[in-house]
Design a protein that fits this description.
Layout lengths: L12 E5 L3 H12 L3 E5 L13 E3 L6 H10 L2 E4 L6 H8 L3 E2 L3 H8 L1 H10 L7 E4 L2 H14 L4 E5 L9 E4 L2 H10 L5 E5 L3 E11 L5 E3 L3 E6 L2 E7 L6 H17 L4 E10 L4 E7 L9 H4 L4 H10 L12 E7 L13 H4 L5 E5 L10 E8 L3 H15 L5
Parallel strand pairs: 1-2, 1-4, 2-3, 4-5
Antiparallel strand pairs: 6-9, 7-8, 7-9, 10-11, 10-12, 10-14, 12-13, 13-16, 14-15, 16-18, 17-18
Helix pairs in contact: 1-10, 3-4, 4-5
The chain binds adenosine-5'-triphosphate (ATP) and magnesium ion.
Length: 392
């Protein structure tokens, strides 16, 4: 992408592939800066489509839909993990697309992703690629040598929120898991003893300038992000610096333009291992809407529009609680008691406009800001109690 990219002025139209909650929050950011928006998503009720100036309800690879998007937009980004990289490549023939199709293709395939990390000199979990029954045998032998078991078999493509993953403790479970996942190409990863999980959001502009949000401390439950905590000192400072440097080199080597999230594991021996990347804003960066002077969605907008990137500053300690469909279940007898939650000072409610609540489905999130980390955490636990979420 050229360094001489001309900044797009507010008033123009920007587009996004994918109409989920990430697209919705990007639409909000774009609109608040005076841009018009267009969303391509086949779902007529997609969270982003509902709030966008324009919604093109067509499939991501439908040439007519892509053509329509290209004809109304000056630049396009993506918010959807698995949006076909080909769709981005097609759009790039006529308009500005950020991130580029190659970077998205790498993020979509755990094999390419790990190869990229290794190339950048960033440590990964020990792993083996499994694409066939024959590989399974080879991997098993290999496995015995480097002890990949107990491990996690993950599909190389299309996984999210812990889907497409099976934990395996012996060879039989490995063989069964490969069958269960449909025999598609997979990566077998050693199960690592995690002390913590971190993530870093980095934004890189057309001119190569990079900025980042503070390192986030994440807690997962059942393979799904449950809570993010961000304040000075919540992450080990040496590891946080390593994470930021690693994230920047991963973005730099991809010639990445846009917002990139890099997920890390902190092992019990206090070492850092990269897990995966998301070529878009990330659930663990949602707190930035309420706790930073520039949100991850504004960063995404600035990157794609060629607007300046200034270093974000966090102004309040923050806790982000994910609101999954589970809390709408009959367990509570009625909808979550948001009015009671909103009585707590520093609570910011974000709901994504999804009409159907299902177990594990991300329906919204709650950010809690406070003047101290202790207060943020204590309010978060009060909110969790009201909502029927197990305490942190
Ligand atoms: P998402 O896209 O929602 O971030 P995902 O489905 O792509 O998730 P991963 O990030 O690979 O999946 O894994 C989900 C969670 O499972 C991790 O955040 C971590 O808690 C756990 N996990 C994954 N791999 C390992 C591992 N090798 N060792 C220990 N825990 C792991
Ligand atoms: Mg993950």
């Amino acid at each position: 992408m050229s360094v001489a990219f001309k900044p797009l002025a507010p008033g123009g139209t920007l587009g996004v592939l994918g109409g989920g909650q990430l697209g919705r929050m990007w639409v909000h950011a774009a609109q608040s800066m005076g841009f018009q928006t267009a969303v391509l998503d086949p779902d007529p009720h997609s969270p982003a489509g509902l709030v966008s100036h324009q919604h093109i309800p067509r499939d991501y690879l439908d040439p007519a839909g892509l053509q329509q998007l290209a004809s109304v937009c000056q630049a396009v980004t993506t918010e959807f993990e698995n949006v076909p990289a080909d769709a981005l490549a097609r759009l790039a023939e006529t308009i500005q697309v950020a991130p580029n199709a190659h970077a998205v293709a790498v993020a979509q395939d755990r094999r390419l992703e790990k190869a990229h990390f290794v190339n950048c000199g960033v440590p990964v979990a020990p792993f083996a690629v499994i694409a066939s029954d024959a590989d399974l045998d080879v991997a098993w032998k290999h496995t015995e040598g480097i002890h990949l078991i107990p491990g996690i078999l993950k599909t190389a493509r299309m996984g999210y929120d812990g889907k497409g993953q099976v934990r395996v403790r012996n060879k039989k479970e490995l063989i069964d898991a490969f069958k269960q996942l449909g025999g598609v190409p997979c990566v077998l990863e050693k199960m690592l003893p995690l002390q913590a999980e971190y993530s870093v959001i980095v934004a890189r502009g057309h001119d190569g300038v990079m900025v980042h949000l503070p390192v986030q401390h994440n807690v997962h439950r059942d393979g799904i992000l449950a809570m993010t905590q961000v304040w000075a000192g919540v992450c080990d400072s040496t590891l946080a610096t390593q994470a930021i440097n690693a994230a920047k080199s991963i973005a730099q080597e991809l010639q990445y333009i846009g917002v990139l999230c890099v997920e890390f594991f902190v092992l019990e021996d206090n070492t850092l291992v990269v897990n995966e990347i998301a070529p878009r804003p990330h659930n663990s960066g949602h707190y930035s809407l309420d706790a930073c002077d520039v949100s991850q969605f504004e960063l995404q907008l600035r990157c794609m529009a060629g607007l300046p990137l200034t270093p974000p500053r966090q102004h309040s300690p923050a806790v982000m609680l994910n609101l999954l469909g589970d809390i709408w279940s009959e367990k509570l007898g009625s909808d979550p008691n948001f009015p009671e939650v909103l009585q707590l000072a520093g609570t910011h409610l974000h709901l994504y406009g999804k009409s159907e609540a299902r177990k594990g489905r991300k329906m919204g999130h709650l950010t809690i800001t406070a003047s101290t980390p202790e207060q943020a955490l204590s309010t978060a636990n009060q909110a969790a109690a009201i909502l029927g979420i197990t305490a942190f």
